[in-house]
Amino acid sequence: MKKQLLSLALLLGLIASASEASFAAPAVFGQEQRQDDHRDKDGRQGRKGPRQDGQRRQQRLDAMAKELDLSSKQKSKVEKIFQEQQQQMQALRGQSGQDRSQRHAQAQSIRQSTDKKLKDVLSKKQYAQFEAKRQERMRQMQSRQGDQRRGGSGRRDVNGRS
């Protein structure tokens, strides 16, 4: 009888530990995947974590400096302008009690102010290049959003349906 109780207790212990491991494994695996890969379930590149925002911002600034052939003085001014814009936008997001249209109007005002400051820092040619690049990014973003609304990658099956 004692042997049966002991073996039953051992069996229950094994089952309990196995079930804990099976519940814990997907969560740990999922966290590792998100931290290392930053891809969603469809394999598309996802958003980076907050600790990489500074690195990403610096990479974008470096790429912009290279594309527009910015001087070091221009680059530092542009960096300040973008930092100010980011701080203003974060403050706007933190405000409560405003409706969506008010926040949208304020965000638009912040963007217009940023554009005016950029026009003062960049030459006409540089600003035109900057604006063209911005429009290109907007088109790409809109096409990605359109693909998502259609339910996927926009590919069609043999019958011509999405």
Automatic annotation (TrEMBL):
Comp. bias regions, Basic and acidic residues: 33-82, 113-123, 146-162
Composition bias type Low complexity, residue spans: 83-98
Keyword annotations: Signal
Coiled coil: none
Lineage top rank: taxon: Bacteria
Chain intervals for the UniProt region annotation (Disordered): 27-162
Secretion signal, residue range per the UniProt entry: 1-24
Name this protein carries in UniProt: DUF4890 domain-containing protein
Organism, scientific name: Hymenobacter rigui
